[in-house]
Amino acid sequence: MARRIDPVCKLCRREGEKLFLKGERCFSPKCAIERRNYAPGMHGKKAQFRRKLSDYGVQLREKQKVRRIYGMMERQFRRYFEEAQKSKGLTGLNLLQSLERRLDNVVYRLGFAYSRAQARQLVNHGHFEVNGVKTDVPSYLLKPGDQISVREKSRNTTYFKDLPKELERVKVADWLSLDARNLGGRVVSLPNREDIEQPIKEQLIVEFYSR
């Protein structure tokens, strides 16, 4: 699986808003948007004074933003869209529900990780079980009723030993339930549109791929 190894704060600067890619840093004065709220590169400051984006440009930026939020390459993201298009219901909502139900995203939403990138790494290292079975595939799609828990062998590590206290302050979305004491969680239902916190205009993504 491809992954970024270069700085990710410049992605937030490129999109002009916080994508919450660095966990706690995004809520501190060190956040790149707080310090340099303009596009990266030597011409970044001038870019904000350029001509208005075309409809295509607006659609492209929205697609890139969502792809970066969930940490995916273009081919994988396009596959999610094609599957959402084939499913019943609104394509945009189907897409967001699939992205939210990824194992790495659910681990992040439950508070087991401070960012989706960290959640992806924890899943890759085999720290989690789904319905009692070790699962190390970040893109594994969960469904209502699935149980997620930290593996018994992983609970003795320093990171997971200190985690229950942190989880007591976590407020999870209504479509998830968290058992902080036992380091577990459950998918209660499919996520609703209002459960997605960040401002995403999924219709622009639908329009982009429908050109």
Structural commentary:
This protein has 211 residues and is an alpha+beta fold. The protein folds into 2 domains: 9-99 and 197-209, Ribosomal protein S4/S9, N-terminal domain (Ribosomal Protein S4 Delta 41, Chain A, domain 1, Orthogonal Bundle), CATH 1.10.1050.10; 102-187, RNA-binding S4 domain (Structural Genomics Hypothetical 15.5 Kd Protein In mrcA-pckA Intergenic Region, Chain A), CATH 3.10.290.10. It has helices at 9-15, 32-35, 44-47, 55-69, 74-86, 91-100, 103-109, 116-124, 158-161, 163-167, 202-209; strands spanning 128-130, 133-134, 147-150, 176-179, 184-187. The two termini are 28 Å apart. It contains 11 helices and 5 strands. Strands 2-1-3-5-4 form a 5-stranded antiparallel β-sheet, covered by helices on one side.
